[in-house]
TrEMBL record:
HAMAP family: TatC. Its main location: membrane. This is Sec-independent protein translocase protein TatC. Part of the twin-arginine translocation (Tat) system that transports large folded proteins containing a characteristic twin-arginine motif in their signal peptide across membranes. Together with TatB, TatC is part of a receptor directly interacting with Tat signal peptides. It comes from Acinetobacter boissieri. The lineage of its organism: Bacteria, Pseudomonadati, Pseudomonadota, Gammaproteobacteria, Moraxellales. Belongs to the TatC family.
């Protein structure tokens, strides 16, 4: 991939890019940043009237597990406003992510060779899809399992009541962890395509990578075996998926 600000001109487009002053690069970057901020702000404002409903949807897995005598609580006066507000911002960011990445691709596109352009866009589309898939997996499968485990092991004399801010932080961390974890096939493909690590080397180091998946999951998830396994096994399977596609690409080239 050719650097955007330090190119080796091989055609007229790259020559023009190489001769462009740094302040013009910043002007172009500002144009794309303004677009991103405008879309993000617009989505945020459109979703703001539904912020409380969005939080109700997020808290549904927890409320389904709580005893009838328990409920969610707010230990801070501002929590009832800030928690839905933060969630609304997160949702707006997630919805606008394809647009944000597309703007980033448009910015670096002039610095790419044709074969790099053909490769970058599919990888970016796959990355977005996998990230959303990771969040959906965390919400529909992992989160209910974790909540059921922790509430079921609570002593009978303790009534579980979760603070809405704490629950939001817990969920957002879980979503980001699984969203980033599902990027493993893309990372594996990039390592193979760029020639940093050949597939043979990854195959030989498979057992160390599997151990590494469980090691990372141990620190990235809550302190229970269920969530660790539910993160480590997908990490391993996603690595194998990236390895399969990497082998196919190597054979083609």
């Amino acid at each position: 991939m050719t650097s955007l600000h330090n190119t080796q001109p091989q055609d007229s487009a790259h020559t023009e890019l190489d001769e462009m002053p740094i302040h013009k690069h910043l002007i172009v970057l500002r144009k794309y940043l303004i677009r991103v901020v405008a879309v993000l702000l617009g989505l945020f404002l459109c979703l703001l009237p539904f912020a409380n409903q969005t939080y109700q949807l997020l808290s549904k897995p927890l409320r389904a597990q709580l005893p009838t005598s328990s409920s969610m609580i707010a230990t801070d006066v501002t929590a009832t406003f800030l928690a839905p507000f933060k969630l609304n911002l997160f949702v707006a960011l997630m919805i606008s992510m394809p647009f944000i990445l597309y703007q980033a691709w448009l910015y670096v596109k002039p610095a790419l060779h044709q074969h790099e352009k053909n490769l970058t866009f599919p990888l970016m589309a796959g990355s977005i899809t996998l990230f959303y898939t990771g969040i959906a997996f965390a919400y529909f499968i992992v989160l209910p399992s974790i909540l059921h485990f922790f509430i079921s092991v609570a002593p009978e004399s303790v009534a579980p009541m979760t603070d809405i801010n704490s629950y939001l932080s817990f969920c957002l961390k879980l979503f980001l962890v699984f969203g980033l974890t599902f990027e493993i096939p893309i990372i594996t493909l990039l390592l193979i395509i760029t020639g940093i690590v050949p597939t043979e080397s990854l195959v030989k180091k498979r057992r160390f990578i599997i151990v590494g998946c469980f090691f990372i999951a141990m620190f990235a998830t809550p302190p229970d075996a269920i969530s660790m396994i539910m993160l480590a096994i997908p990490m391993w399977l996603l690595f194998e998926l990236g390895l399969i596609f990497g082998k196919i690409i190597e054979k083609k080239h």
